[in-house]
From TrEMBL, chain A:
Pfam families the record matches: ABC_tran (PF00005), oligo_HPY (PF08352)
Biological processes per GO annotation: peptide transport
This protein's name: ABC transporter ATP-binding protein
Compartment(s): Cell membrane
TrEMBL record, chain B:
Organism of derivation: Nonomuraea deserti
PROSITE patterns: ABC_TRANSPORTER_1, ABC_TRANSPORTER_2
Single Gene Ontology BP annotation: transmembrane transport
Highest taxon listed in the record's lineage: Bacteria
Stated name of the protein: ABC transporter ATP-binding protein
Alphabetized CDD domains for the sequence: ABC_NikE_OppD_transporters
Pfam families linked to this entry: ABC_tran, oligo_HPY
Amino acid sequence: MSERSESRAGLLELDDLSVTYRIASGEVPAVRGVSLTLDSGAALGVAGESGSGKSTLAMALLRLLPRDARVGGRILLDGEDVLTMKWGRMRAVRWAEASIVFQGAQHGLNPVRKIGDQVAEPLLVHGQARPEAARKRVAELLDQVGLPTWRARSYPHELSGGQRQRVMIAMALACSPRLIIADEPTTALDVMVQAQVLTLIKDLVAENGISLIMISHDLSVLADVCDRLAVMYAGRIVEQGPSGEVFHDAKHPYSKALAAAFPTVGDPAARLAPKGLGGDPPDPMQLPTGCSFHPRCPVALDECATLDVELWPAGERRTAACVHVRAKEEAS
Amino acid sequence: MTETQATKEKVSTAGQNLLEARDLHVEFVARGRRARAVDGVNLSIGEGEIVALVGESGCGKTTLARTLLGLERPTSGEVRYGGTALDYGSKALKAYRRQVQLVLQDPTGSLNPRHTVYEAVAEGPRIHGLADEETAVATALSRAGLRPPERFFLRYPHELSGGQRQRVVIAGALALNPHVLVADEPVASLDASVRGEILALMLKLRADLGLSALVVTHDLGLAWNIADRVAVMYLGRIVESGPVEQVLTAPRHPYTQALMSVLPESPERVVLTGEPPDPTRIPGGCRFHARCQVLASGKAAEAGVDGKCRSEPLDVLPAVPGAQAACHYADVAG
Ligand SMILES: Nc1ncnc2c1ncn2[C@@H]1O[C@H](COP(=O)(O)OP(=O)(O)OP(=O)(O)O)[C@@H](O)[C@H]1O
Ligand SMILES: Nc1ncnc2c1ncn2[C@@H]1O[C@H](COP(=O)(O)OP(=O)(O)OP(=O)(O)O)[C@@H](O)[C@H]1O
Ligand code: SF4
Ligand code: SF4
Ligand SMILES: [Mg+2]
Ligand SMILES: [Mg+2]
């Protein structure tokens, strides 16, 4: 997996991004100060526990959050400030420059409209094509995601879950965006379709120079597709670095647990012995003090309950928010 | 795989046949075309046994699962529970559903957005008139990893993450203390750490209460983690089945071999291409022949079975616990 040079201007830059939901019982700080850079043509994987804020982060990028969400910090897409963009410009950006494949969105397909019409819609709405050309493009797109052309005439309920997810990817590709944000694009797909979809996504990134942010809780899947990985816990990035290194040699105890959670088939140690991480997932409304991971951390020190952790350098182009990493850096 | 090992497996997994599919067929008619979504399946789940059903998207897993639950009527064949054929009368079905609970693939679609978590989980206990509803709900929620449960009682689905929603769905199924869980991709949307917890929970429920389960999954690692037996489905049929140790370490059907090859740690990938399988056009001969890598590479021809692959359909596999594969090549090559 090639590392792209740091000097290249970022296509997407997040600076101290935060998102807080307001609900009846109070405030939910779902994303708490995330900074990162995505180079043009690069692929970044975002991993993390359920509820860690991955989808919230993804939706914030295109301002798709509900009204009761408060967003702070800065998002620059190709130098343009997303948070202050006019609505008209925002809508254009959503199709032509960046599009998102939502988690579970295959269930949101309109049940009474044919697949082909739904895939064609962004093409027609955004004036990219006339009906005849749109029909051709739909056939191309369906082919690209491995669905036979006649499926254009099917209704969503006639497709299986996996087939519908491929329709969603076709829709995201329709206007040839520069950035695709894919939220759990292969979750709930069988291994073969997952392999097909991942190969498809990899090719799109490699051949068309499309940049990618892919969200998953499966580190092995992300490591397969992405150059870099960011691991989130309780609304913050706790580790970042080249994907192979983070997957095989994680520095943060949480990333380590995440990497270990998917068993190797044939490994006797994993047979009838699923491995999880003990303890409860954190409640964003009552986050632990100090390092948010400390109540579940197998290598926590006394100071972890009060320490202000930050992303410390953890090797070349790597950072991790753990006191053990800071200690090592200081020693060296 | 040695005979002794196979025998050992049989002993450890063969309880009473609790839930059974016998020569099950389920067809749909869509736009004038007949889709044979389940096209002849024999399957049995023993008392306290966990069976994983794996296979490609669209191969009929959900249809099979729904039919086992009595949510779909078979076109032919039958579903049997505790040795008797399923009674589709509404009262009998209601009693049946208390025993055999569904955990759905799609948490968003299966939760009513206007119901709180408490109401969602309490629905089963209410319908079945369970005493001490609140304890049942709280226990189910904490078993499903939503702890402390009271924190979630009054939340609405849109206030939860995708994974938290799935845990609510699982809690809903656990609330009635069923005998059999039919779980359709139960942990696919869960975080790795919680996934381990839920799978461990299913093993614990099996150990403590003798719970049986059919787990529909695309995740072979999950099958390795918790299942006693695995059945591999392709285009409406089970093409290979047997003890997990045997099938997942020495798969005999080329389709199972391909599935294994796309796991992250595998050296050589066989990514199947070609037309995705379509139950309205099931090919003649072996139903996998158009995509089979063993046939395409000439190995089937070397073994002299290529003609059979293209023209001779395979028998429907019986519901036996031992390892078996529906493949002409595997028959001669062992
Ligand atoms: N609309 C909302 N209102 C209030 N809270 C919300 C809302 N959406 C999400 N949350 C909360 O924000 C946190 C982050 O949720 P988010 O959906 O971003 O998590 P995620 O990392 O995508 O999880 P998953 O892997 O389960 O999809 C969670 O605690 C969730 O309960
Ligand atoms: N109500 C229906 N009408 C017509 N065809 C249907 C119907 N339900 C399912 N099918 C078809 O039957 C086949 C099996 O679908 P099913 O949902 O059982 O697959 P699956 O194995 O669960 O797939 P996935 O892994 O994607 O969930 C598919 O080809 C699907 O298109
Ligand atoms: S800072 Fe402490 S509690 Fe946090 S991950 Fe590191 S060792 Fe564990
Ligand atoms: S019967 Fe022939 S075509 Fe079918 S799986 Fe076996 S080798 Fe392949
Ligand atoms: Mg999410
Ligand atoms: Mg299904």
